[in-house]
Structure formats: C-alpha cells, structure tokens
Amino acid sequence: MSAPHTDVEEVEAANTAFYQAVEEGDFEAVSGLWLTPADLGVDETYHDPADAGVISCVHPGWPVLTGRGEVLRSYALIMANTDYIQFFLTDVHVSVTGDTALVTCTENILSGGPAPTGGDELGPLVGQLVVATNVFRRTPSGWKLWSHHGSPVLAGEDEQDGEEPPS
Amino acid sequence: MSAPHTDVEEVEAANTAFYQAVEEGDFEAVSGLWLTPADLGVDETYHDPADAGVISCVHPGWPVLTGRGEVLRSYALIMANTDYIQFFLTDVHVSVTGDTALVTCTENILSGGPAPTGGDELGPLVGQLVVATNVFRRTPSGWKLWSHHGSPVLAGEDEQDGEEPPS
Questions:
Q1: pTM score
Q2: Quick check: B96 and A52 CB within 8 A?
Q3: How far out from the chain centre does Cα A71 lie?
Q4: How many structural domains comprise chain A?
Q5: How many Å apart are CA A122 and CA A119, to the nearest integer?
Q6: Domain assignment of residue B32, yes or no
C-alpha cells in the first residue's frame, strides 16, 4: 500500500471518468472502464470456479445484472433512451485496501428524454437523487470497475442525516 | 488464488452468518462480522490517507453510512425497531479476486414490528424484495464485511428479467 495518496487520486479519476463516459453516451469508454477477466490475467475460456473478476451492476430499482453481457447491454439500453444526462457527484468517499478500492458517492442526476412532441428539443428535465457503491480493481491498465450498485434515496430532506430510516 | 472452491464456500458462509446475526438480533455477532482497520493490520490511531478498511453501508432507500460508528448505530436502531425479521436468500453469486470477494444476492425479507395494540403478539408481517451487493475482505480472522448496499427492486414481476428498466 505504497503512495496511498496517488491510489486515491487514481481511483477518483477512474470514478469520474466512468460517469463522464455515461454522460457523453460513449459506449466504448463505458465498456473499457468495466473489468474483464483478461485484465486480471484470467483465461476467459477456462471456467473459473471462483468467478474472479465477474462484474455485477444494480441500477436504481433494478434487479442484479451479472457478467459483461447483461451489464453492457443495460448501458446500451439506458443510453439509447436518454437524450441528456448529467451527474453532479457529491460526498465522494474512497477506501483503498490492497488492490481493491471502494467508492461511495451521491449522484445528483439531471436527465431528459426526447420531447413528447417528437421535435428536436429535449423533454422536461428530471432530477433524481441516487447513492452508489462502486468497487474498483487495480489492473495493469488502470483501475477498472468490478461492481456498481446505485439506489434511490427515499428519505425526506430532514431525515437525510444518516441516522433515521426513510418514512 | 489457490483453492478457489474453498474461498467461495467460506465467503458464502460469512454472508449467511451475517444475515443470520441480523435475524437473531445478535448485535455482537453483527459487529464482529464487519471489518475493522485492525483486521488489516492498520493502526487505527494513525490517519490513513487511503482510508483502508473503512466500512460503508446503504440500507434500502437510505443515504450512505460511512465508518463503524454510523454503520453499527444503524443496525442497533433497526434491531430495536424490528420484532421479527427473516431473510430468504436467492440468486447468491460470489466472485473472489485475490483477497476481496463480491457477493450479490436477492434478500426476500419477511419482517414484523410490534402489534399495533401494544400486546405481546407480532404486528402484521410485511414482505420486501431487496437486492444486495456485499463486499468481503479476507483477514486473519476470516472474511469480514467491508461494504453492504441493499436496494428495493421496483420492477413489476414480468419485468424482472434483468433487461428492462422499472416502470
């Protein structure tokens, strides 16, 4: 665990790059930021009983998606149905232990779909408050996303002190 | 990554033990299953810029809780307000990479609070469908929980094929 400051900065940069790739609708970049077994030196043709590096993803309100096929298809679907999305990240916390990093953050999301009239303009913008736990793994080609779990925050404004259950 | 089968079995057992401890309202057991910096050989009096082993937890609909103080207080609060809770775990998937394990599972929860009349009997039982991502870290005293993120599944029954967004 040498140079932990650098580790934290690298992980934060990878986390920011991930949200930026989704904002830009850059599927290749999103795909490249998710871990592959090859990143870990695991032979993908061999069945690994420990499922090393198998990715998983939970979008807010969704069931679990497991493996690159399901996860990347979900991003293609979301990007195809989103004309505009922006993430304002707050409360970013990074914990690096060995070759794994855990990032928690609040995603203040502003998004819009196509205009209801079918014109060129955006539909109404919608705000959404989501909290995420992102797990990154150190690889020879940088920190890669092993797991993303996002969920809606249902508590009222005055109950978001982290101590009370949502009403 | 020797004996991966054993790793997966050990992680599954730790995951089961965690839910069992919550079911039994055993705060000491819950506390003992969450990672401490000491488990990793980190001196807790020294400020670690990488925050190695700092735990985080998201209950369904809640904001992020960070650190043993916030996380364990939330379990004390939940246990104090729950007379009966049972987890039926399905779709358990384990991915072990080095000294970190990622567990995803569906928590089919049945819970009950005190009877509304204040008698000895349980209140009405409530079912809840939650998906969880649990991150475990290998320590000299076994696999310990580094992160738990639970979230409600909002999709309708016929939309839970992992491909469609919730309605």
A1: 0.89
A2: yes
A3: 11
A4: 1
A5: 8
A6: yes
